[in-house]
Amino acid sequence: MDFTEKTISGERIYSGKVINVDVEEVGLPNGKTSKRELVRHPGAVAVIAVTKENNIVMVRQYRKALEKEILEIPAGKMEAGEEPHVTAGRELEEETGYKPLALKKIASFYTAPGFCDELVHLYEADIDKPGRPFTDEDEFVQVEEISLQEAEEAVQQNLIHDAKTMYAVQYLRLRINEQ
């Protein structure tokens, strides 16, 4: 069976700094039609950075959509025409002050494919000494370095509550268990 939904018509109902929102009428595989509300996102990167002391570099920030602060691995939106590895290096340095010595791509994944096309590219970074973060004027973060055990406890306590960071914690645990 072909599950493809063919777009019949569409309208952009919102154009923003980070996302656009489209409403599309689609033809369904059974011949009927339906509406789809779609969030369009330029893509993002996230970076797993571990210090020489084996601490994970995290940022603590308030997330308005959640109405709470959470711990996250450094991440950010890709700029138009920017390659993911360039975004990864830029975001790591801007948010934490750490400049990557090397970047290794781990995976790419969709965050919410039921309504959003955001694709996150996950990298692991080799880092050295921290510099000074230089975040955007509307971005407020606190850099923290925590152990893998502390990160796993933060997941259990819902202090780490986003998929990219939970994925990173699991990735690091698996990597350590394989050694």
UniProtKB/TrEMBL annotation:
Residues 39-168 form the Nudix hydrolase domain. It comes from the Bacteria. GO terms for biological process: nucleoside phosphate metabolic process; ribose phosphate metabolic process. Pfam families: NUDIX. PROSITE patterns: NUDIX, NUDIX_BOX. CDD domains: NUDIX_ADPRase_Nudt5_UGPPase_Nudt14. InterPro entries: NUDIX_hydrolase-like_dom_sf (IPR015797), NUDIX_hydrolase_CS (IPR020084), NUDIX_hydrolase_dom (IPR000086). Keywords: Hydrolase. Its cofactor is Mg(2+). One of its GO terms (molecular function) is hydrolase activity. GO terms for cellular component: cytosol. PANTHER family: NUDIX HYDROLASE DOMAIN-CONTAINING PROTEIN, UDP/ADP-SUGAR PYROPHOSPHATASE. This is ADP-ribose pyrophosphatase. It comes from Sinobaca qinghaiensis.
